[in-house]
Design brief:
The structure is a single chain. It is built from eight helices and no strands. It has helices at 2-18, 21-38, 48-67, 73-86, 91-105, 108-119, 124-131, 135-168. 82% of the residues lie in helices and 0% in strands. α4 runs antiparallel to α5 (91-105).
Length: 169
């Protein structure tokens, strides 16, 4: 019943953190296995969902460490350009792709806090529990994550203007 209830949110969280649906699926399965093995360690100091998301987060961090992914801003920009050049069937699909590219462009720390707050609608207390940090740290990270996202979007908008000017010449 726990898996049925939390499968989609945990899988989505892991997929976005890892930028890979297959890795996200594996991480979600590993999360539920870890939760099953350690359910007796759940003390109820936080909500069950916070505890489960903390396990998912730690699982994703372990995977990222193993893969030793270090993406640069140039690589992030090239991902965006590749995604843009492919085109999409509808505006909705294009918007989803752009959101996905934006999330990929963010650092893992900023991506996870934005996902927890904006996608999973967690409050500061819940995020604090998942990330094991103070509420002030949550607020600071969230502010920096939003600033990074705005900077990325501003950069993209500037590039689109340049491309449009070149096309008119």
């Amino acid at each position: 019943e726990i898996v049925r209830h939390f499968e989609a949110p945990i899988r989505g969280f892991c997929t976005h953190i890892l930028n890979d649906p297959a890795a996200g699926e594996d991480a979600a399965q590993e999360t539920f296995l870890k939760a099953y093995r350690t359910i007796r360690s759940f003390r109820g100091e936080s909500s069950f969902s916070s505890w489960l998301f903390r396990i998912a987060r730690n699982t994703c961090i372990d995977i990222l460490r193993k893969q030793k992914r270090e993406s640069t801003k140039a690589q992030r920009h090239s991902l965006y350009e590749e995604g843009r050049s492919e085109g999409s069937a509808s505006q909705r699909l294009e918007a989803q792709e752009q959101l996905s590219l934006l999330l990929q462009a963010l650092s893992p720390v900023h991506r996870e806090i934005l996902l927890l707050r904006e996608y999973h609608h967690m409050n500061y207390d819940e995020i604090s529990s998942v990330l094991q940090c103070s509420i002030d740290a949550v607020k600071g990270r969230l502010k920096r994550a939003r600033q990074e996202a705005q900077e990325y979007l501003r950069h993209l908008h500037e590039n689109e203007n340049v491309v449009q000017r070149e096309e008119t010449l």
